[in-house]
Amino acid sequence: MTKAAPCTVATVNLYHWAEPGIGWYSAEASHSSEGWAEKCAWLTALLAEMDADVVGFQEVVSVAHLEALCAAAGYAHFSVVAEPRFAEAELNAEPAPAVARYYTRPVQAVASRHPMPAQPVRASASVARAAEAPDRPIFGVGDLNDDPSSSALRALTAYRPFERDGGAAGDDADPALVDPAQAFRLIDAHRLSPPSLTSDHRAPTHRSGARGEPIDFVLVSAPLHPWATPQRLVRARVHDAHFRGGDPARSSDHAAVSAQVGVQVVVCA
Predict the structure, then answer these.
(1) Is 69 helix (H, G, I), strand (E, B) or coil?
(2) Which of 6, 127, 210, 265 has an alpha carbon within 20 to 30 A of 55's alpha carbon?
């Protein structure tokens, strides 16, 4: 079975996805029942808004709860890269701890509407190596804790062929003029989405006080680069409505990012 294009891939940093009674790196803070219900409702609404085929999640602690929520939203396939780690609070401590248990390491997860390989979630270094297969589309998604100008991100992604001045990002791009080495790198989907081709503006994806920064990305590999017609990126979006008021603990301090690409998805039976 083949799903007609386009296909949408998204990333969401869930910001302490831990059920009430589980502390956030310490025994001092956790979600209230009311706050957790609001957070779950926000994520359900966000998944409906993005309408993505595949979603990558970060800061996952309550794995079973997330899997159930995703299943209810139409994502029947779910996988995590590892198991969260927990620690027990010192019950005799002064002042008394707010919770008996807290998490020390969250994990990443992926939810899909379509069957997927047994190990779809991999570390960033593995994703970069996988992208060296130029005939196989690869997505790298997540909170990378780096802005687009960072040396780390520039080392991972290809920017030179897509510069505004005389670059090869237009519909008339000539694959013969592209440096072959660029075909083995990932590229930031935002850079391929109008009006990003003519503007350096990028909406923040992480809010910190009155300021914000773009640190969440959907990266795509060579088969999705603009010269690989007809597999075109249609648009990249930042889903940040929750930034305009409210408690980030009841949603997230990150905005979700989605990228829609013009590819066919082969669904395994």
Answers:
(1) helix
(2) 210
The DSSP 8-state label assigned to residue 186 in this structure reads B
Residues found in the chain: 269
Single-letter amino acid code for the residue at 204: P
pLDDT at 226 over 90: no
Q: Cβ distance 136 to 186 under 8 Å? A: no
* Residue among 82, 81, 86 nearest 104 (CA): 86
Cross-strand bridge partners of residue 202: none
Neighbours of 163 (CB within 10 A): 12
For 50-72, b/e burial (b = at least 16 CB within 10 A) is bebbbbbbbbbbbbeebbebbee
* Model confidence pLDDT, tens digit, residues 38-57: 999 999 999 999 999 999 99
How many angstroms separate the Cα of 247 from the Cα of each of 34, 125, 202, 207? 12, 34, 23, 12
**Do the bridges between strand 211-213 and strand 206-208 make them parallel or antiparallel, or are there none, so unpaired?**
antiparallel
- Mean pLDDT in residue range 178-186: 61
For residue 71, the cross-strand partners are: none
Other CB atoms within a 10 A radius of the CB of residue 198 amount to 9
pLDDT averaged over every residue in the chain: 80
